[in-house]
């Protein structure tokens, strides 16, 4: 039986949650555990908002730990998946740069490079202002995204000159993803050219983008939107499964890694 996938879409993975799960399984819930630990470390309150909640795993886990977590996403497919698999958790539709929930939260997190879909300076400010509006004074903000500085390293340069390949098994079918990165330097845009190969299907070609931020640039944006920087770091990296729950918090700010993460406080 041929697998069912939606191909007429602006974002192939975000429109096919089951395939997204096949590529990003996170069986140990590293991101969820890390966020839980952050909330405890910084003594944040129980009311939490997840921007770009995707499959809903982090929201569901936090709620299972006694938090009042809500997920927000602009993908109807992701929202349907999350509501079906985690019916006890609330998920709502919204865009990060322009949403209004008529309430404030103790903490807000935006992970998995969702923030990098703010392509213009105006969109960046709109999103951060929207985040600030939905946080109590003293509320905690955690952002996780691709690290622009990584592409200045030797490994980052390799990513820009070689095709990168990933493969998984989805419904007994081999799915291969080949990625070629390039950078629009003038606009700080990472061009992501994806070629999907699904056994028995014609190739699926995508051209996606991410805005790139450097550490001091992002710090300046945060300050202008009434946030005080607490930490900016590249390790630990829960998005890549690199987080040891048993180890104390030790942040590395060498900024050589693939991820840039920020912890800030609403002021």
The number of domains is 2
Task: Please report which band the strand proportion falls in: under 5%, 5-15%, 15-25%, 25-35%, 35-45% or over 45%.
Answer: 25-35%
Shape: globular
- How are helices and strands ordered from N to C? HHHEHEHEEHEHEEEEHEE
CATH fourth-tier homologous superfamily of the largest domain = Vaccinia Virus protein VP39
First and last CA, distance: 56 Å
The tally of beta strands, per DSSP, is 11
Q: Walk across the major sheet and give the strand order.
A: 3-2-1-4-5-11-10
Give the proportion of residues in helices: 25-40%
Major beta-sheet overview: 7 strands, mixed
Architecture (CATH level 2) name of the largest domain: 3-Layer(aba) Sandwich
CATH topology of the largest domain: Rossmann fold
- Rounded radius of gyration (Å): 18 Å
Mean pLDDT over the residues: 96
CATH class of the largest domain: Alpha Beta
The secondary structure category is alpha/beta
Word description of this protein:
Strand 6 (164-170) and strand 7 form a beta hairpin. 36% of the residues are buried. The chain has helices spanning 12-15, 17-23, 30-41, 57-64, 76-85, 121-133, 154-159, 215-224, and strands at 47-51, 68-73, 91-93, 105-110, 135-146, 164-170, 173-184, 189-198, 204-211, 227-233, 259-266. It has 2 domains: 12-148 and 214-266, Vaccinia Virus protein VP39 (Rossmann fold), CATH 3.40.50; 151-209, S-adenosyl-L-methionine-dependent methyltransferases (Single Sheet). It is an alpha/beta fold. The strands form 2 sheets. The chain has a 7-stranded mixed sheet, with helices on both faces. It is globular and about 55 Å long. The N and C termini lie far apart (56 Å). Helix 3 packs across helix 4.
């Amino acid at each position: 039986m041929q697998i069912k996938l939606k191909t007429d879409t602006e974002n192939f993975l975000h429109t096919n949650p089951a395939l997204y799960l096949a590529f990003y399984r996170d069986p140990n819930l590293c991101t969820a555990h890390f966020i839980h630990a952050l909330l405890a470390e910084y003594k944040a309150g129980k009311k939490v908002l997840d921007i770009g909640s995707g499959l809903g795993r982090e929201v569901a886990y936090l709620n299972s730990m006694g938090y009042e977590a809500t997920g927000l996403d602009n993908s109807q497919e992701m929202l349907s998946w999350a509501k079906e698999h985690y019916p006890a958790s609330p998920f709502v539709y919204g865009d990060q740069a322009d949403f209004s929930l008529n309430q404030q939260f103790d903490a807000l997190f935006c992970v998995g490079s969702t923030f990098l879909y703010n392509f213009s300076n105006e969109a960046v400010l709109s999103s951060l202002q929207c985040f600030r509006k939905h946080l109590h004074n003293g509320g905690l903000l955690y952002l996780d995204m691709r690290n622009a500085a990584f592409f200045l390293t030797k490994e980052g340069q390799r990513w820009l000159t070689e095709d990168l390949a990933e493969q998984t098994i989805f419904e007994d079918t081999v799915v291969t993803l080949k990625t070629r990165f390039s950078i629009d330097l003038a606009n700080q845009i990472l061009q992501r050219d994806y070629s999907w190969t699904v056994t028995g299907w014609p190739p699926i070609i995508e051209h996606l983008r991410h805005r790139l931020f450097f550490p001091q640039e992002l710090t300046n944006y945060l300050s202008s939107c009434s946030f005080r920087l607490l930490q900016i770091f590249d390790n630990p990296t829960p998005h890549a499964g690199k987080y040891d729950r048993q180890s104390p918090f030790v942040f590395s700010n060498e900024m050589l890694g693939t991820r840039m993460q920020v912890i800030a406080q609403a002021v």
